[in-house]
Amino acid sequence: MLTLHGAGVGGGVAIGNAFVLFRDTPEVPNYVVPEAQLDAEVERFQAAIRVTRTKMRKIRKDIPPDAPSEITSFLDAHMLMLNDPVLSEDPIQTIRTEGLNAESALQRHADSLTEVFETMEDAYLRSKKTDIAQVVSRIQNELLTFGEEYDGRVPDGLDGQIVVTNDLTPSDAVALRHQKMSAFITNLGGPISHTAILARSLRIPTIVGLHGAIRYIRHRDPLIVDGHNGVIIVDPDKSTLKAYRDRQLQEQRLQTELVSLTSAAAVTSDGERISLFANIELPEDIGATKAVDAGGVGLYRTEYMYMNRAEPPGEEEQLAAYVRVVSGLQRPITIRTLDLGADKQVDGGRPGGHVTINPALGLRAVRLCLSNPALFRPQLRAILRASAHGPIEIMIPMVSSLDELDQVLDLIEEIKRELTRDGHEFNENVPVGGMIEVPAAAIAADLFARKLDFLSIGTNDLIQYTLAIDRVDDEVNYLYDPLHPSVLRLIQRVIEAGTNAEIPVSMCGEMAGDVRYTRLLLGLGLRIFSMDPTRVLEVKKTIRNSSIESVTTQTCAILAATDSTELRDLVERMNRNES
Ligand code: PEP
Ligand code: MG
Questions:
Q1: For atom 1 of ligand 1, which residue has the closest CA?
Q2: CA 337 distance to own-chain centroid
């Protein structure tokens, strides 16, 4: 039994078997094999060599007759290496004498062979180390994947499995939405990354940033995943399994209790009504939104419609999607215009795309849209046309400059004229709001508020940009702090700017759906929350247990705290208080 720790993204407890999904070059696992299993480990190693040999023979046979002869000789050289006992004798010896696993024993031997080649004077012989690496990598692949091959795309048939992988792009996560995995573990990534946000919406336990996941977890290993605490137990014993099965039952009971709040009002104990909206990624998410009786959609991340396909969706396809959402829900829908770029790439950001050094500061969201009218115009036309079918609002992501905002507002007016000319119906007064997720916009929120009908605070990016922490990079994730005084001051400032301009201010970043911050946000004056539908009932429960009067007083003390320990203590104390 082995316990590993990462960053829990939520979703409770899952018990099942690992499905190790390799991406890029897998890490070589390193572990000790029990004596009784040494014969089996040697056989596993020899089987991997046999399978590699069969596959290489087939590749050689399939070479077209007119292919250059170098290709055949290159493969012949690899076959010779594979057949040479020198390659297998040493690793077998290491497995038997040191009890090392096959992958590690092979890698150690390959490294020492490479070292010998590296010292050779002759450049041709020195280059042979690449051949060794290629042959070894083929054998490793067999050992690591049990012969299951991936072409880099997400495979089908993951139902009920716990997917363990190095990293996933948001487009992979979208592709995975249709499978019923029971949990998700990644080596890399932070809990606020778009991949993690999508995983959360799958309602399955998810742990990210679990360094060594690929090294310590093997394909088909029995696992327990505790998504709340970021804990993974590999090969659990009976009593641990029982304890976690009990936890699962407890969670089910808690869930039933929350479900009973579905039709209850989101009202504080002193009578203040709070609006709770849902964040969605795809039209089918309205099912989850209805299930928790959210007041509408506060953030529709439309960019997910653009992923995993060769061509962007056209105006008619988008119109159909937006109408499906607004007619299906019959409640207000805030459609965010495209926020592609940075970690959200249409092609999943695989090699071949344009490489920028600071993608989060680059051509992303509204910047990308303004630079590419052929992408932006059909979306604006589709949203405006959909506004004839129900209460729709347009939300612009990543506004950072007033001039840029003017350009968007002018474009919307131009498109309205175009639609009138074309005889299309739309809501002439469709509200246009902006996401406040760049510190520049938060600091000057009063200026942006004058031009907009509403503001929505995107804390995921606001925190990333304020604290200069890449939300996807697990190495700096420990610094990602929603309670940083600068973040709290910016939030307060934006809420004040909206109140003074008499326009609504909502929050649609992950912070809005995290019950650890619900009272604090109420104390800062927030009255409209938008979050993943899975969070709505829990937040509602906290709201019903809070009094505005009390949280406002306590929030004043929190804002006056002079060090972070004091601040955290005050927040915890506020969260413990019953009202
Ligand atoms: C945010 O930045 O808080 C937000 C809601 O947008 P996204 O997570 O899609 O960047
Ligand atoms: Mg954002």
A1: 458
A2: 19
